[in-house]
Amino acid sequence: VRIRPITSEDLVNLPTRFQKSVLSTAPYAPNQVIVAGEKKQYFSYDYVFGPDSTQKDVYDRAVLKLIDKFLEGYNVTILAYGQTSSGKTFTMGTSDNDLIDPDDKGIIPRAVSTLFSSMESAQYKTRKFSIKVSFIEIYNEDLIDLLGEGDGESRPQVLIREDSKGNILWSGLQEIKVNSVEEVISHLTRGSLNRQTGATDMNAKSSRSHAIFSVTLAQQKFISSGGSSPSPQPDQKSGVRPPSRSNSRLSRRFDEGEWVSVTSKFHFVDLAGSERLKRTSAVGERVKEGISINSGLLALGNVISALGDPNKAKHTTHIPYRDSKLTRLLQDSLGGNAQTLMIACVSPAEYNLVETVNTLKYANRARNIKNNATINAEEAGWNDVEHLQTLVMRLRNEIKILKAATGV
Ligand code: ADP
Ligand code: MG
């Protein structure tokens, strides 16, 4: 949970008698939020960041270790949840650009910067990497490619598919290859300028859409099956094909492992405002927007509840991912094959007390999720018939030799 400070906008926009802060943290229980009131309420989380916490604090404590997981091949998802103006976009850095004060940079630019410097580090030097980014928005249950060519109707439609292994694939989406932090930030900035925003009396720039910025990392790494043989470089031309197995003694050491290609996805999700529709005094088109956004967050809540309640989870095998585009897109990031962090953003002002308590309760439920994380590795050459035929021949040969040796 992250509590933002009272902002200068609060001092202008909120009625004076409701401007005071109702949230506090205690040094003796650093993972607790205390809500003031007739009867104090206490909520506990994995991390609590008070109003004085910096962008760097949040990143170093809650996010940094996820970058290593990502480089190891795990899918990672960070969701920012909370009412409009609670600090989701600020925390996530969804609309950061290259002019921003370095201290104010959010999670996305920090993560991308760690990622690029890690790839250069000694630890990962023997691997080959390739990175792509995409940026998608869900607005009225429509999927909009924020990096797509053209605008409006002429943009290609994004579709959600599932492959035979149950992996969720997004087709028709621009995935742009990037080589530097600067390139990533320029796409982030361009995409966020395309985001759907509209004014209501809650916040002039409030956002009624979900935005998902994704980084896809493809890498080839050598997994040694024991011993510490030096890792050979992958063959430039044949891509992931493993080194050929000649009878030469010199190449024996390459037999101590396999080249594997690993693909992992990092989703940075800036969710739509979680406030109830009635507070936005919506009319006409706004009502439809409000309702369909609530359907995405409602479905997310139901999925989280089905995954998070240990009693329910035992009896229900059905998790309602298909109830909204948001949950469908994030299917393999919620209770699936991923490391997931939800950051619940809250305002400390008394004026927002009802929504704040709703958010704290929602985040409390989400905390019960137990993700089942595995690495998305596929053996190099798995789709290469020639490689597989050679492998079969070799295995047959080995069986023959073993049979002969044991006299079976
Ligand atoms: P949301 O995306 O949830 O609608 P924003 O991230 O746009 O909210 O935050 C609303 C306002 O509060 C912005 O002006 C933002 O700069 C400011 N703000 C949010 N969190 C913090 C924080 N931790 N420290 C300082 N200012 C913040
Ligand atoms: Mg926002």
Automatic annotation (TrEMBL):
<dbReference type="InterPro" id="IPR027417">
    <property type="entry name" value="P-loop_NTPase"/>
</dbReference>
<comment type="similarity">
    <text>Belongs to the TRAFAC class myosin-kinesin ATPase superfamily. Kinesin family.</text>
</comment>
<dbReference type="GO" id="GO:0005875">
    <property type="term" value="C:microtubule associated complex"/>
</dbReference>
<dbReference type="GO" id="GO:0007052">
    <property type="term" value="P:mitotic spindle organization"/>
</dbReference>
<keyword id="KW-0175">Coiled coil</keyword>
<keyword id="KW-0505">Motor protein</keyword>
<keyword id="KW-0067">ATP-binding</keyword>
<feature type="region of interest" description="Disordered">
    <location>
        <begin position="223"/>
        <end position="251"/>
    </location>
</feature>
<protein>
    <recommendedName>
        <fullName>Kinesin-like protein</fullName>
    </recommendedName>
</protein>
<dbReference type="GO" id="GO:0005874">
    <property type="term" value="C:microtubule"/>
</dbReference>
<feature type="binding site">
    <location>
        <begin position="82"/>
        <end position="89"/>
    </location>
    <ligand>
        <name>ATP</name>
    </ligand>
</feature>
<dbReference type="InterPro" id="IPR019821">
    <property type="entry name" value="Kinesin_motor_CS"/>
</dbReference>
<keyword id="KW-0547">Nucleotide-binding</keyword>
<dbReference type="GO" id="GO:0016787">
    <property type="term" value="F:hydrolase activity"/>
</dbReference>
<feature type="compositionally biased region" description="Low complexity">
    <location>
        <begin position="224"/>
        <end position="249"/>
    </location>
</feature>
<dbReference type="GO" id="GO:0051231">
    <property type="term" value="P:spindle elongation"/>
</dbReference>
<keyword id="KW-0493">Microtubule</keyword>
<keyword id="KW-0963">Cytoplasm</keyword>
<dbReference type="GO" id="GO:0003777">
    <property type="term" value="F:microtubule motor activity"/>
</dbReference>
<dbReference type="GO" id="GO:0008017">
    <property type="term" value="F:microtubule binding"/>
</dbReference>
<dbReference type="InterPro" id="IPR027640">
    <property type="entry name" value="Kinesin-like_fam"/>
</dbReference>
<feature type="domain" description="Kinesin motor">
    <location>
        <begin position="1"/>
        <end position="369"/>
    </location>
</feature>
<dbReference type="GO" id="GO:0007018">
    <property type="term" value="P:microtubule-based movement"/>
</dbReference>
<dbReference type="Pfam" id="PF00225">
    <property type="entry name" value="Kinesin"/>
</dbReference>
<keyword id="KW-0378">Hydrolase</keyword>
<dbReference type="GO" id="GO:0005524">
    <property type="term" value="F:ATP binding"/>
</dbReference>
<dbReference type="InterPro" id="IPR001752">
    <property type="entry name" value="Kinesin_motor_dom"/>
</dbReference>
<dbReference type="GO" id="GO:0005737">
    <property type="term" value="C:cytoplasm"/>
</dbReference>
<dbReference type="InterPro" id="IPR036961">
    <property type="entry name" value="Kinesin_motor_dom_sf"/>
</dbReference>
